[in-house]
Design a protein that fits this description.
The protein is of the alpha+beta class.
Length: about 375
């Protein structure tokens, strides 16, 4: 859609009441900056609405409608609107204002999407899975290791709409970092899209480094002296959490490859080189996850082998003691029979002799089993 067409769209929405509904939405509930952890998340889904021109933030707090009108009248700059878990009602007029496709809008509101990249006319819709490592004192069979969220990005010629789901993955620090580099931000909305992708992948690498510490601890515990007593649920739990991390990381490879190699109207050609760098980082994350998965499989197999060896050792000990106990049981069983004519029944030292024979036989068996490492 051309700039003139966008302007006509804004004007028609103003006559139809759409812009007035957006303005009422912005006035009805106060904006809350969710980018700062100390701010309250209650009150509004609108995190921030900022206009950028030549890579510089336009001063003055204006509403979304005024910001869009000014950008489209001047024909330069773009608007960055940040949202956090908006409802259908909150997002409806925003979608109408920016002419967003209903399918993309539904995905952005409902969330629970896999990473993907879709093009709807002049608008690019990208879904990123965010990952946050959950700190824990000790890994157990029920420990949460990683927590995931989502960031959806609508990118147009003169706007960027970011929709965040989850309590992590804040874009506030990212916005500040971009504003400190006006030359990069001057490249337009695609610079914001790249920054979001780079931010998400960096979080992947941070979480993977933290998960590696858990993998190392489990590996150390398995190969310790009492490794056979390790709860295998810890290994399974770590594999489950690693699978969740894999679902966030691996599907993003194809969208990043498309952003880095294929010409897209809303992506500046000079930005594609930056996407190739992000794609390389993602490849590193993917390889690390695959290595962790293989290592955990090996750790699990080693643990099962240790359990089997420990069980065999226990069975050998039980068998050895049973053989030792069988000697006095047999002798006592024989002399416990009620017969009149049995050897040494009338001998004065018969009782002591039998006990001596039992002791010598048991001691001989014990030394034999110890010599063969059965006891």
């Amino acid at each position: 859609m051309s700039m003139a067409g966008n302007l006509r769209k804004v004007t028609s929405l103003g006559r139809g009441g759409g812009l007035r509904r957006v303005a009422r939405l912005a006035r009805r509930r106060p904006r809350v900056d969710l980018s700062h952890p100390a701010r309250s998340p209650l009150g509004s889904s609108v995190v921030n609405c900022v206009t950028y021109r030549d890579g510089v933030r336009v001063p003055g707090g204006v509403g979304l409608v005024d910001a869009v009108e000014r950008v489209r009248k001047r024909g330069d700059g773009f608007v960055w609107l940040g949202l956090h878990e908006p409802t259908d009602e909150e997002f409806a007029d925003i979608a109408e204002l920016f002419d967003l496709h209903p399918l993309a809008v539904e995905d952005a509101v409902e969330a629970h999407q896999r990473p993907k990249l879709e093009r709807y006319g002049d608008t690019l819709f990208a879904v990123f899975k965010t990952v946050c490592y959950v700190e824990h004192e000790e890994l157990t069979a029920t420990s949460e290791v990683v927590n995931t969220g989502e960031i959806m990005v609508f990118t147009g010629q003169d706007f960027v709409v970011t929709v965040r789901h989850g309590r992590h993955g804040s874009l506030g620090p990212l916005r500040e970092e971009l504003e400190s580099d006006p030359q990069q931000l001057a490249k337009g909305p695609s610079a914001v899209l790249h920054a979001v992708a780079d931010h998400v992948v960096d979080d992947f690498l941070t979480a993977i480094d933290a998960v590696q510490a858990d993998v190392d601890l489990v590996e150390t515990a398995v190969f310790a002296e009492d490794g056979a007593r390790l709860d295998p649920g810890r290994i399974y739990q770590l594999k489950r959490e690693l699978l969740e991390l894999k679902r966030a990381v691996v599907p993003l490879g194809r969208p990043l490859e498309e952003l880095a190699t294929r010409p897209i109207r809303v992506v500046a050609p000079e930005i594609q080189a930056y996407f190739r760098d992000v794609s390389d980082h993602l490849l590193r994350a993917t390889e690390q996850i695959a290595a962790f998965d293989e290592l955990l499989n090996s750790i699990l197999q080693a643990h099962l082998a240790q359990v089997t060896v420990a069980q065999n050792e226990d069975m050998r000990k039980i068998t050895a003691w049973a053989a030792i106990v069988a000697v006095p049981t047999m002798v006592c069983g024989v002399y416990g029979m009620n017969f009149d004519h049995m050897p040494e029944l009338g001998w004065r030292y018969g009782y002591g002799l039998v006990l001596g024979v039992i002791a010598v036989a048991c001691l001989t068996l014990y030394r034999g089993f110890r010599r063969n490492d059965w006891l």
